[in-house]
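Protocol step 4 of 6: structure prediction from sequence.
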Amino acid sequence: MTKQKNHFGTMACLLLAMAQFGMTPGLQAAPAFADKNFNLTSPNDPSKPVPGGVRWYWRMHGEYLERTKKNDFDLCFLGDSITQMWPGDIFGKYFGKYKCANFGIGGDRCENVLLRLDDGELKDCTPKLIVLMIGTNNQGMNTAEEVTFGVSIVVKRLREKCPKSRILILGILPSAGTPYDKTSAINAGIAKLADRDMIGYFDFGAKLQDKDKKMLPNMFADTVHLSREGYEEWGKAVAPIVEKLMTKRVSAL
């Protein structure tokens, strides 16, 4: 009985994500890209490209520029340390059948990813799918609206740089330092970026929480980063969606 419940839970998540790409009937909506006149109230501007402050930023950015030049991948994961820290065996288990690149850099915020893109990452590349998770590190420096603003600028830049690539935006995961309501508000905002054609949205954060919205200790290695079990949940939740988007032509209805 447990297996049946898990199966239907996975199918429900898959159908929800497919709907975001127009794989089920529905009206197409324009993505809610940020207004240029957005009223920024925090000192940190998530839309202004700046380098990351960690010592490994430029080294890893250089590695990703070299990978970009090779243009030998059709699936790209883009984000911060949560993306960077995928255990190799688990990543291979769920995504090893694709030509995949992991462009995660620990410490990155929206503005740091913007600099990477403006400086050449993914230039002239046409991966079938870009899986984006960014904004976690902005939560302590920006309001929920500003984080959504920053994510929208990253997505807009990706559409400019890789117009033929589909984008799957993943909701920001729960973390001990950020109230659930704030993370939820951010995810509600970035979900509106989905256009049911080239941009989709999916949130698997509920799999990492109990019924009271508290983080499940076995899913996290610390207050932010996932444990191996947490990455297994990520893989199980997202791999079916990635497979659909990598192997089938998807058109908005």
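Step 5 (inspection) to follow. The radius of gyration is 17 Å.
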